[in-house]
Write a structure and sequence with these properties.
The chain is mainly beta. It is built from one helix and nine strands. A hairpin with a 4-residue loop joins strand 7 and strand 8. The protein is globular, with a radius of gyration of 17 Å.
Length: 138
Amino acid sequence: MPCALTQSLLDDKCLNFAGGALEIYVTEFDNVLSITASDASGVTAIELEEGKQFYKYAGVKNSISYTDVYTKSDAGSTSFTPTVTINLRGLRKEVRSELQALVRLNVIVIVKTRSKQYMLVGSGEGLEVTGFASLYRD
């Protein structure tokens, strides 16, 4: 039996919508002890191990994006691939070292959008940082 649709997706605030993301907050997936959430209010609390924290990454205008890609195979299986992209200006040595450390970790990310909404990404199994590239110009 096919899945039933549950709501219309009409956005009557289209002209007031501010797309894109302002900043992201990142911590190691293993730092998370619990996440409190409900269907009505979404995530209301995230408890971390003592001494652990989220680290803030803020980009310049239009430098952070978040996308969800849903894919259905011919065999009927579905997959969900969230992608968070951030372009940082001026890759100093300490920033480059931090990014190299992130590539080796399983992380959880909070995305703050321009419309002041927060989205939690990777809460189920964490996210893998698949790489980063550095661009140097004279």
